[in-house]
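Hi V.,

You were right to ask for the full record rather than a summary. Here it is.
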Amino acid sequence: MSFKIFLETHNIINRAAGLGTFNYELVKGLSSLDFKNCELTLNSSNPDILRKEFKDKFKYHKYNSLSRHSLFRIRKKYDLWHSVNQNTKVEPFYCNKYLLTVHDVHFVDEISADPNHRVNKLFKAKLEKSTAITYISEFAKAETHRHFNVPNIPEYVIYNGNPISTILDTSKYITDIPLDKPFFYTIGDFIERKNYESIINMMKLIKDFNLIISGNNNKKYGEEIKKLIADNGLTKQVFLTGKVSDEGKQFFMKNCTAFLFPSIREGFGLPPIEAMSFGKPTFLSNKTSLPEIGGNASIYWENFDPEYMKTILFDGLHEYETNKAEKEAIIKKRAADFDWKRTAADYFDVYTKILY
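Predicted structure:
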């Protein structure tokens, strides 16, 4: 018997964002598996790009924004529909088996706590139709149960993998950012929960290092960060790169003194794992899922007082330099614990548990 599985992966086009990365890496991991008894269909606005990379390993469906509306939902019947993002509005017209992957429920705080808000209603409808649920962290699972009535169905926590599977040659990478001082690095979307202002305020107390932040800063929060930098006279010490290529990201991670990630809300948190691939000391907030991801290989800020953050940072750097070989090994091992092939195999195992 052959089963037809639909993966709602239309976010795969935007690999600069976390969901795009998740979509692509999951698909790439699945492509390495033998699923001869299953036919997997990917949803994408540009399926030719995926077809060029993955050939006939998958079937392909061309995403149309109209399919977000109930009247124009995909009517082909599948044995299993995998909603790989809890916020997607693309749903099946017919629902046989339904797997929901929950990354986070931050929308309860960030958009509206009103249970009748359309985003909450959409998510509750997904929960109600689900045959099983996967979460990308224990924190994501706990928060879902805290805010919603979760049906009594199978639930699984499957950690994301490390997006850096290949270390690139960055020796020819050119940047306009001054590299005359050692620097700290961070990367992510420019949204308030990333809490970049905390490390910028800390930089007012640090003169011998620069701070480099990558990500799309053409947003309201990006403008606030630019103003904070200018108002504090840090334009020659704190630099925004905008979006960077994989080569650029690896260049900055490979050459930074430390990776800083003070986010106050994360369903998972991929960038710290990427930085740990290079054995870099990672300094994280102790909020939400980050301690779960960083484990004992990272150092944590418990609050965001600039003096306190500076102390934790330099105490951590001193300890790292004192035991560098040992610390590097611990950090790299932690990064290696997260593997997309293993993650994809875990998802496929859930598929088979649902279908058989």
